[in-house]
Structures are given as C-alpha cells and as structure tokens.
Amino acid sequence: MFYQLSLSYFISAMTRSLKKGPYIDERLMKKIEGKDPLKTGLIKTWSRACQIPPEMVGFMFGVHNGKTHVEVLVTEDMVGHRLGEFSLTRKFTRHGGKMQKDIDTKAKEAEITQAKAAKATTTDAKKK
Question: Are residues 27 and 80 located together in one domain of the fold?
Fold first, then answer.
C-alpha cells in the first residue's frame, strides 16, 4: 500500500529515488489511521528510518533509541524528517572534567546570592 503524498514535504532529506517515493512504515500508518491525536496515547515504534508525513502531526511516538523508547511529539516542523532524528542514541557527557565542575558550582552560587539579594530588596520595599 503506497501513500500518495506531495513530494514537496520530503525535499529536506530525500535519499531515496523520486520514483520510489519516501519510506513510510505501513504498520505505523495503520496504527494512526482514523484516530484522534489527542485521545491516542503513546505509540511505540522501532522504525527510526520512517519519514514523517503530515498525517502524523500531533501524535506522540515512543521511538526506540537502542535502550528505551524516547517520547517524541510530532509537530509541523518535523514533516519530512525521520523519526530517528528526534531520538538520540548516544548520551552526551559534557566536556571539562573537574575544572568545569568548579566553574559550574561558582556560577550556581552566584545565582543564588543574586536571587537572595533581589528577594531581600523586594521584601524591604514592601515593608515601607
């Protein structure tokens, strides 16, 4: 079953030939066919290569990243991209090590002192 879709939606990442059209998982389309996006819960999928057609907008998908299902709410901006682009497979650990941790703690302490000072000035102004 091939879905007739406008190819202008899929220009962003067209790796397949225009003759074949975009890859859209049929099982995934059957799961959302005729359903209301607000009433439908999380739809789990392992199909990371599936391109997002306009019919998927508003649905919540659980895209598998190799370990867990990451919740992805499909918006209009995502049309033409693939589901796997929004479910990262690698966890980013920041750079810097111990030196970066020291910088971060000093920044947090500065924010806390600024917040306390601002709170004290607002309470003093209210008392007068």
Answer: yes
Q: Are 59 and 86 in contact (CB under 8 A)?
A: no
**pTM, two decimal places:** 0.63
Q: What is the mean pLDDT of residues 40-47?
A: 94
Read off the DSSP letter of residue 87.
S
Task: Report the domain count for the chain.
Answer: 2
Residue 127 forms part of a structural domain: yes
Instruction: Compute the C-alpha angle 54/33/61, nearest 5°.
Output: 65
In 1-128, which ranges are continuous DSSP H helix?
Answer: 26-32, 97-127
In terms of Cβ atoms closer than 10 Å to its own Cβ (0-12, 13-18, 19+), residue 45 is buried
